Amino acid sequence: MAYPVVDEAKCVGCEECVDICPCDVFEMKNEKCVVERSEDCEECESCVETCEEGAIEMVEG
């Protein structure tokens, strides 16, 4: 099973991933996106596709 990982150094806090995720996997903390519920991820990768900064990748876990 894969889940998203956010590179905080690349994240600009645009919240696009928070808005697009159908499973509410992400939350904003300290103006950065964080993965709060990786177990709810359905691996649709919409967060990866919407992140213009390339801050999100899917990893096998």
Q: Could you outline the blueprint of secondary structure elements for this entry?
A:
Blueprint: E1 2-6, H1 16-20, E2 26-29, E3 32-35, H2 46-50, E4 56-60
Brief overview, please?
The protein is an alpha+beta fold. It is built from 2 helices and 4 strands, in the order E-H-E-E-H-E.
Q: What is the 3D shape?
A: globular
Distance between the termini: 6 Å
* Percentage of β-strand residues: 25-35%
Which spans of ≥5 residues are poorly predicted at pLDDT below 50?
none
What's the count of strands? 4
Q: What CATH architecture would you give?
A: 2-Layer Sandwich
Helix content: 10-25%
The topology string of helices and strands comes to EHEEHE
The overall pLDDT, averaged over residues, is 97
The largest β sheet comes out as: 2 strands, antiparallel
CATH topology: Alpha-Beta Plaits
- The helix count comes to 2
Number of domains: 1
Structural class: alpha+beta
In angstroms, what is the radius of gyration?
10 Å
CATH class: Alpha Beta
Biggest sheet strand order reads 1-4
What can you tell me about this protein's structure?
This protein is α+β, with helices and mostly antiparallel strands and 61 residues long. It has two helices and four strands; from the N terminus they run E-H-E-E-H-E. The longest helix has 5 residues, at 16-20. The chain has a single domain (2-60), classed as Alpha-Beta Plaits. The chain has a two-stranded antiparallel ribbon with strand order 1-4.
